[in-house]
Amino acid sequence: MPTLYEVEHLHQPDGWLSPGFLEVGDDGQILSVSARCPAGRRAEKLAGYGVPGLSNLHSHAFQRALAGRTEFVTGALAEDNLWTWRKEMYRMVDRLTPEAYEAIAALVYLEMLKFGMTAVCEFHYVHHQSGGAHFANPAEMSDRLIAAAADTGLGLTLLPVLYAHGGIGKPAEPTQQRFVHDVDAYLALIDTLRSRRTDHPDLHIGLALHSLRAVTPEEAKAALAGMNALDPQARLHIHVSETTHEVAEVEAGLGARPVQWLLDNTGLDDRWCLVHATHLDASEIAGAAASGAVAGLCPLTEATMGDGFFPLVEYHQAGGAWGIGTDSHYATSIAEELRMLECGKRLELRRRNVIAQPSATGPVHSGPVHSGRVHFDMALRGGEQASGQGGGALIIGRRADLLMLDADRNVLLGHGPQTALDAWMLGGTENPVRDVMIGGKWVVRGGYHPQEARIKANYRAAMAQLTT
Ligand SMILES: [Zn+2]
After folding, report:
1. How many CB atoms lie within 10 A of CB 91?
2. Ligand 1 centre from 299 Cα, in Å?
3. Keywords of this protein's UniProt record, alphabetized (predicted)?
């Protein structure tokens, strides 16, 4: 039997319905949306703001275990940046067991749910045993992520990463041996993981190239051709232009800046997610925006690494799609990430409401343009495009991924639909997400997830093993 909900305020692509009637079928898809209760039907009332769940478009789940553990300097360190942080990350990778990998992922996926994300794109590169020997099951570590997502109920777009070299023209380092595949073994892994969809119908498998530093042009093209043969709609992700060091290395090695190289050699389109894309010149901004690719912004991770500022205003004005990832999980909150993105730009540009203006391709708004609404809607669309999960809007035919925001939490108290999303992003730090539905099923109710105590106990045990 389909279920009918009367949502006090229901988010729609062009505004709000207050109330809105949302009908969800047994298959978890939205059957109808209307401003009036269908004749002869009774509806379950949901108080507060009903908004679509967001897809987190970039995650390395295991890096959650490093959060708060690298914020110090010892000795006379000349510099401290992404590359010095990476050494600490590799030290942890060396000790990661499959059990710890799953336990950490389960905790971070639980956190994502509770902060309003209903799916994640997991950029997964720890494939093998410490030292590089393969597991008896080549998909062991991938299967651990699938199990963690299934345990929590979070939608998963799994992106096994092709990682073959330690830099342009350099072999992989000993610390990188857990990550390395040749293209044939990589495509075999993708094929194996696609078969897991029999048991996990909402699992999506995409392709990820670690970066243009870690794969050669020939490897990139062979992997893309192989993926295209398996699934021409598969999502394609790559780390790109995160640091000026990376831009310089690619320009010296391949003869073009990274995004320009992708534009010239891969036919970038809307299947692609350009993760970070921090350092773009004017030609790359225009080309990437026009390609339809999503820029995968991870504002808090980029800030903590000292990467630099993404050209958000220029990219947005060019009609570029963008979304949000929580990457190394300094926070697992979309609101925190959007606040960092907006406020970082305000500081840099010394002005307010930096993108609250109509975009060539952005959502349609009537009346004042609100920063919180623009950010939320862009992150929603970009996340759905990058994940391909089938949610991203509360409209007919989409997966019923619904968040109920509690209007009685201090952060939303006294607000109405016009400013509720501004308040969530810029009106306080309290998390107003009360209930989370994915595919028509409630996975969090009243802030409570039924597996939370067990997931936290497993995480605590994993951290004890990793840090002693
Ligand atoms: Zn990343």
Report:
1. 12
2. 12
3. Hydrolase, Metal-binding, Zinc
Between CA 132 and CA 135, with CA 94 as vertex, the angle to 5 degrees is: 40
- The C-alpha atoms of residue 5 and residue 361 are separated, in whole angstroms, by 31
- In tens, the pLDDT along 101-160 reads 999 999 999 999 999 999 999 999 999 999 999 999 999 999 999 999 999 999 999 999
CA of 204 to the centre of ligand 1 (A): 19
CA 464 to chain centre: 28
Q: Give how far Cα 155 sits from Cα of 54, 150, 273, 290, 342, Å.
A: 10, 8, 18, 29, 27
Query: C-alpha 418: how far from its chain's center?
Result: 26
Q: Is residue 457 part of a domain?
A: no
Question: Does any domain span residue 450?
Answer: no
Q: How far apart are alpha carbons 353 and 432 in whole angstroms?
A: 23
CA of 238 to the centre of ligand 1 (A): 9
User: Ligand 1 centre and the CA of 287: distance in Å?
Assistant: 22
> How far apart (Å, rounded) are the C-alpha atoms in residues 307 and 85?
12
Task: Estimate to the nearest angstrom the gap between the alpha carbon of 193 and the chain centroid.
Answer: 20
Q: Which residues pair with 403 in a beta bridge?
A: 51, 436
- My answer on whether 35 and 15 are in the same domain is yes
List CB-based neighbours of ion ligand 1 within 5 Å. 327
Residues taking part in catalysis = 276, 327
* CA 383, chain centre distance (Å): 6
Domain boundary among 387, 412, 433: 387
Span from the CA of 382 to the centroid of ligand 1 (angstroms): 17
Cα–Cα distance for residue pair 254/345, rounded to 1 Å: 31
Per the domain annotation, does 284 fall within a domain? yes
- Does residue 468 sit within a domain? no
Distance (angstroms) between ligand 1 centre and the Cα of 428 equals 28
Following DSSP, what letter does each residue of 436-452 receive, concatenated?
EEETTEEEEBTTB-TTH
Measure 174 CA to ligand 1 centroid, in angstroms.
20
Q: What's the total number of domains in the chain?
A: 2
The answer to whether residues 184 and 258 belong to one domain is yes
Containing domain of residue 147, as a range? Answer: 54-387
Q: Do 7 and 22 touch, CB atoms closer than 8 A?
A: yes
Instruction: Based on the fold, state whether residues 262 and 197 are members of the same structural domain.
Output: yes
The rounded Å distance from CA 81 to ligand 1 centre is: 15
Q: What is the pLDDT of residue 31?
A: 98
Q: What angle do CA 389, 391, 394 make, to 5 degrees?
A: 175
Please write the tens of the pLDDT for every residue from 174-228. 889 999 999 999 999 999 999 999 999 889 999 999 999 999 999 999 999 999 9
Q: Which of 343, 336, 337 is nearest to 323 (CA)?
A: 337
